[in-house]
Write a structure and sequence with these properties.
By secondary structure, the chain is mainly α. The protein is built from six helices and two strands. β1 and β2 form a beta hairpin.
Length: 191
Amino acid sequence: MTQVGTLAYVMPPAVAVVFGLAIVAIVMTWAPPSRSRRLFVLMVAGLIAWGIAIFGMRTSTDIAVALIWDQWSAPSIVVMFLGFYHFSLVYTNTSGQRRALTIGYALLIIFLLGTPAGLIVEGVRVEDYGYAPISGVLAMPAVATSIGLLLAGIRTLIRRYRTSSSYDERSRLLHLIGGACLPTIGLALDI
């Protein structure tokens, strides 16, 4: 018997969606309009899209439908971490990263185009805990891209933290660095 559809199985992505929507509402209400705000919302939109995709997959009783949902979770993660990296560059006013951003967005387009063809998630199989993805040929490049973008964004924030003399800015940067670790912790706990 699998856990497909059980509360413990579907709750984590549902919580991610609810918190993501709350974060977007708070940011749109309180943060002044800016490029960094738009990129922050893009990052959180990736989290929301991931949560919706995983929730859809985990509540599906048809394996073919679960596959479609699971396939779209991977590019959502890339959107989240690319949005975070781009946000970190704009927020810290770091220049000279145009090439890295161009490569990141080009890879995102490749991953998006490869998603319907099953190049990231080729299939799903039923395990004791629920559905497990069967990796496609672009799965490892997508994972490596996501991790690289996350680490590059954290590195950008840490560099700014080290050079800042403002207590308020250093405090905000620490919150952003800590917040950047939450998706990774959540993903590890979910696995």
